[in-house]
From TrEMBL, chains A, B:
Superkingdom of the organism of origin: Bacteria
One Pfam family this sequence matches: D-Glu_cyclase
Aminoacyl-tRNA synthetase recorded as keyword: no
Listed name of the protein: Putative hydro-lyase ACFSDE_16760
EC primary class: lyase
Similarity remark: Belongs to the D-glutamate cyclase family.
Species assigned in the record: Nocardioides aestuarii
Enzyme Commission number(s) of this protein: 4.2.1.-
Family annotation (InterPro entries): D-Glu_cyclase (IPR009906), Putative_hydro-lyase (IPR038021), UPF0317 (IPR016938)
């Protein structure tokens, strides 16, 4: 059986469509993964303005208009092709299904938002360790005490992902990820978690804790779960997202988002 | 009297507020200029999706929500602080006033879109000629036969600006402008105008013709007048824009949009 890293995106999506529910870090190496945010059309403008005002956590890669369930980034169906979803009603998580056909409505607009998994291949190629891939876990994500710039009905905190990096490789991690501005780009913070209001790295708000080894520095990137935090705080009547770490594997290549 | 190039943005905006109507190329050198697109709120989502799908001609720098007339990029009033506006009703140009207070409504959303004037300082500093500044004219702009990717009710052609560049400096013009992706970035086309459906460089659709000298190549950049072309084609009930070449001079510095 082909290893997940070697599956083509359409093959990965077919497995998820068939019901496989797993975090996607390391899947279809070389292809871009995306966060999903689905909102009713009358909140879609607020979300796009929110994304425009908070480009580090919310880099929009594509928008599927109301009534569209496929697009240039996926030859498939956004309602079924992710491994796991979250459904929020009035900001409360009500369901974590493996497809959302039952929740779908014709007025829903889907936003595909860049994901930091995209630059992990480049980190690994450069010999920068990616601990959650090494440990076969979901990436750890934390809600910070930094506020996003609000837009319309949407407001919320910045959410970050964390990767421990050996002190001598932090500059490489910054430089390499900085070449991918469309998928969160360079870190927002290097070092002391408390400065972001994170009390305990061992207790992430989303995903799994990973080992931080002696000589390593926690490095924090803006995270595409930020829109989910805004949804939880702003309580729209309906929102559908991917489950954290369970991304859309797109047909775009990581190199499509590389800035020379 | 201070030369236009040496005026601070707020000083330039004060002159325009007082009624001065002039193209802004070369004004407040080192500060970013922006295209303005103002649409009723119920078309704002379509515009933001249009911009997201056509980032080269429509790089959104900021959005003023319905009811807002100022923002972080301008300490002033977007209804009065540009030198000249265009007002479109059902896609027809009905007015070119020097302020739009009389046309304003509370449901209007303002989009500030990047402008290629932003990288002209960098071109000039590198010794790449900018002919329309030399000749004290408005930049020449052309409607092409390339279609933008449509979004909702908005569709239209790509509009480009043109600068003649000596053959030996084309690579520098590409390299330098490419460092400013938020303000149209690298050219979309170098050379033969006919390949873009442009019949005669001497007859631009907007702005003024400039001299193309022997040994120079016409270089075409995506242009922020593209939304105006979409407005003319898509005929929304009301749209307000800047007059081509008569930009918002913002408080942001060109260097804010420089990618290292």
């Amino acid at each position: 059986m082909t290893a997940p890293a070697d599956l083509l995106p359409r093959e990965a999506r077919a497995r998820f469509r068939d019901g496989l529910a797993t975090p996607t870090a390391g899947w279809s190496r070389g292809f871009t993964q995306a966060n999903l945010v689905v909102l009713p059309r009358d909140l879609a403008l607020d979300f796009l303005v929110f994304a425009q005002r908070n480009p580090k956590p919310c880099p929009v890669l594509d928008v599927l208009e109301a009534g569209e369930v496929s697009g240039p980034l996926l030859d498939g169906d956004v309602r079924t092709d992710l491994p796991r979803y979250r459904v929020f009603v009035d900001g409360e998580l009500v369901d974590e299904p493996t497809d959302v056909a039952a929740h779908w409505r014709d007025d829903l607009v889907s936003f595909l938002v860049g994901c930091s998994f995209t630059f992990e291949s480049a980190l690994l190629e450069a010999g920068v360790p990616v601990r959650h891939v090494e440990q076969d876990r979901n990436v750890p994500m934390y809600v910070t005490d930094r506020r996003c710039r609000p837009a319309g009905a949407l407001a919320g905190p910045l959410v970050v992902s964390m990767r421990p990096v050996p002190a001598a490789r932090v500059a490489d991690a910054v430089r390499i990820s900085g070449r991918y501005p469309a998928v969160h780009g360079a870190p927002v913070h290097v070092g002391d978690p408390a400065a972001l209001g994170i009390a305990d790295l061992a207790r992430p708000d989303f995903g799994d804790a990973v080992d931080v080894r002696p000589g390593e520095v926690p490095v924090f990137w803006a995270c595409g779960v930020t829109p989910q935090a805004a949804v939880m705080e702003s309580r729209p009547p309906l929102a559908i997202t991917h489950a954290p770490g369970h991304m859309l594997v797109t047909d775009a290549r990581d190199s499509d988002y590389l800035v020379p």
